[in-house]
Amino acid sequence: MKKISGNPYINKEKGVVLLDEVALNEILKNNSTPLIIFLENRVRNNINTFLEVFKSVIENVQCFYSFKANFLTEICNIVQSEGLGAELIGLPELKLALKLKFPPSKIIVGGPYLPQELIEKCIQEKIREIVVYNLKDLTRINSIAKKSQLIQEICLRINAQKYGSKLGIDLNQSNVIKLKKIINECGNLKITTLLSHYSTQMNNFELFERNVNTLLNTTKSLFDAGIKIENINLGGGFPEAVIMPEKQLRELAIKINTLIQSYDLSFKNIYFEPGRYIVGDAGLILAKVVTVTDDRWIFLNIGNHICPKFAKSSLRFYNASKIEEPHKYKTSIAGIIPTDQDVLAKDYFFTNDLQEEDIVMVTNMGAYNLTFSNRFPYLLPNIILVKDKKIRNIFNPSLNRDFSVI
After folding, report:
1. Which of 72, 79, 239, 269 would be a feasible disulfide site paired with 231, CB 3.0-4.6 Å?
2. What are the residue ranges of CATH 3.20.20.10 in the chain?
């Protein structure tokens, strides 16, 4: 067998495409396109690889899966069964995580918007940390925690100092003074963690290095001001697992650890928030060619409403109907949203022979595509989960209202 898209769970053998242990043709016998497929064993494999690499290199590592990467109940349930924590931004995600039995001690919640109901739920459920992007939110959280007679642990999201970034707190001298005042006045808060998230699809150490340096230099500044930080959270930003294979991931972990050790600082825990790395290459979509033009444009029965550019996925396109033919002829691929901007790829290397009804397999769409998808103008596709030789439908638009977190 030969891997497709570098994924050990997507292979071809004698003209047959295999998804895990299931032939693509068997899937299409009972399913029409467009069809979204998730590979359970790949999700589990990615989790185990990430944990094994980082826990073998860095002491006291803890991982929190970023629900926003893929919030499907079945995917999150797989993550929970592997022992990861949950990183959440809103109340619907929090309710789902609790329903799936993620321990509150392994849940961190927060974002640039913290509505009252979300804060109350976090404190009521004794969630591990609330992540704060604005110092003004601290007094609100303290007031609610005080009513409940609880101490709420806080993670401060700091600005990563990336050009143009507006997210997070800039802990300059003035804001450090404000923070000290808030800490002195808010007896029901405990600042335990600093978080910095630099970017997405970070495929080289230099980007991680900037993030670590920003985080550790800020930690030192707070320490000098009398504010001790117990934990650091390096966020996510990892690409799909096929883009950063295990060897490269291990080299990255070693460099990150060496950089942390170069600072005269010690931490109780070091957090990571992988999302795309866990699920990105575990998802694919099957589409059908509906139109072929004379200048080598093909139109699929999907578009940016399902594969949005905003997801920043490393999409790969394969003619599954002619999988053994060379993919070396420049072809442009468009979607079916009625706008010239619905272009999925331009001058992409594809098969020479282009036919309507050909099945196109789009890989690496497991992270953020559903998150940023929209409902215009077509029905949502079916979603199935494949494990070994088993196929299970996890979303049917004819039966289920929506796949969003509700």
Report:
1. 269
2. 42-279
AA letter at 83: G
Q: 157: phi > 0 → left, psi -120 to 50 → alpha, else beta; which? A: beta
Model confidence at 397, in pLDDT bands (50, 70, 90)? Answer: confident
Smallest CA-to-CA distance from 320 within 6, 7, 19, 8 is with 19
Q: Which residues lie below 8 Å from residue 93, measured CB to CB, with a gap of 6+?
A: 67, 68, 71, 86, 109, 405
pLDDT in tens, 34-64: 999 999 999 999 999 999 999 999 999 999 9
Question: Sorting pLDDT into bands at 50, 70 and 90, what band is 380?
Answer: confident
Q: Which residue pairs from 139-142 have beta carbons closer than 8 angstroms and sit at least 24 positions apart in sequence?
A: 139/182, 139/185, 139/186, 140/114, 140/116, 141/114, 141/189, 142/185, 142/186, 142/187, 142/188, 142/189
Q: Which of 320, 319, 314 is nearest to 364 (CA)?
A: 314
Q: Which numeric CATH code is attached to 2-40+281-395?
A: 2.40.37.10
CA 191 to chain centre: 26
Instruction: Quote the tokens at residue 209.
Output: 């290095």
Q: Which residue has the tokens 């992270």?
A: 367
Residue 377 has phi, psi (to 5 degrees) of: -115, 20
DSSP state of 289: E
Tell me, what's the pLDDT at 173?
A: 93
Contacts of residue 264, defined as CB under 8 A and 6 or more positions apart, other chains included, come to: none
- How far apart CA 28 and CA 45 sit, in angstroms, is 25
Query: With respect to CATH, is domain 42-279 assigned 3.40.109.10?
Result: no
Q: Which residue matches tokens 């802990």?
A: 171
Residue 230 tokens, joined: 């117990």
Kindly provide the b/e burial profile for residues 295-306, where b requires at least 16 CB atoms within 10 angstroms of the residue's own CB: ebebbbbbbbbb
User: Average pLDDT in the 146-174 region?
Assistant: 92
DSSP letter, residue 165: -
> What is each CA distance from 213 to 129, 263, 321, in whole angstroms?
23, 9, 48
Is pLDDT of 86 > 70? Answer: yes
The C-alpha atoms of residue 380 and residue 91 are separated, in whole angstroms, by 24
Q: Residue 405, SS3? A: coil
